[in-house]
């Protein structure tokens, strides 16, 4: 079994960089129509341009912050208004964090991690589900090997990725055969997220070079392109899980 995605409609959140951007290109090469969502509209327009060149028949860009419920509704509405159907939802937009719990002065600053990584996926899925059920579509979920890995200083991020995994394992039962779920648990993939751009202990985004150095020295880094290829191939085959030996090894290399 391999689903033909040519002419199908795919929403990708967090498509302005990294894995989401590469996923847009993988779907475009196979002729899928795309709805690309993120906060940086200019980057999205550039990704859309490349996706059209690669073979996507039609691309729509939606500026959206997935931590806001109305923005998520807008993404799904625009997809339906423009294309009249929805086949795949790729829940990918995410942010990371680096902080020891006891160094954090105000833990409420870290709610932002759950707002994007967990609630963003929940909102998108709630609005898309009726249309995915109609098309017997699929949800691709970017969790992480961090969902199993007790990597210190990443407790907020790790917890958000574990929450996502269990949420969608449960939806798998609720949706039955009508909506497929492909749960992806990448290891360490080279992207903006892993270039030391993190929430610091004060809850602000900054570059953490120490963290970056540790990661680079200890963990086999994979490229976004090969990650995106593996994801789209597995989704088209209707696979329930995507992991790779190199991603899995990340778990054992972290000290
Ligand atoms: P990037 O930082 O390159 O991409 C993250 C994307 O999410 C960007 O397009 C960003 O766009 C978007 N985004 C962030 N916050 C929001 C928001 N509030 N609303 C809408 N979009 C948002 O990271 P990756 O490509 O590496 O990460 C993609 C996914 O893969 C994440 O869920 C991450 O947790 C997961 N993952 C990554 C791994 C890695 O090693 N890189 C490993 C395992 C999982 P913008 O800023 O324009 O909004």
Automatic annotation (TrEMBL):
The keyword NADP applies. GO terms for biological process: steroid metabolic process. Belongs to the short-chain dehydrogenases/reductases (SDR) family. Keywords: Membrane, NADP, Oxidoreductase, Signal-anchor, Transmembrane, Transmembrane helix. Its main location: membrane. This is Ketoreductase domain-containing protein. GO terms for cellular component: cytosol; membrane. It comes from the Eukaryota. It is a single-pass type II membrane protein. Coiled coil: none annotated. The chain holds residues 41 to 295 of 349 of the full protein. It is found in: Membrane. Residues 8-192 form the Ketoreductase domain. GO terms for molecular function: 17-beta-hydroxysteroid dehydrogenase (NADP+) activity.
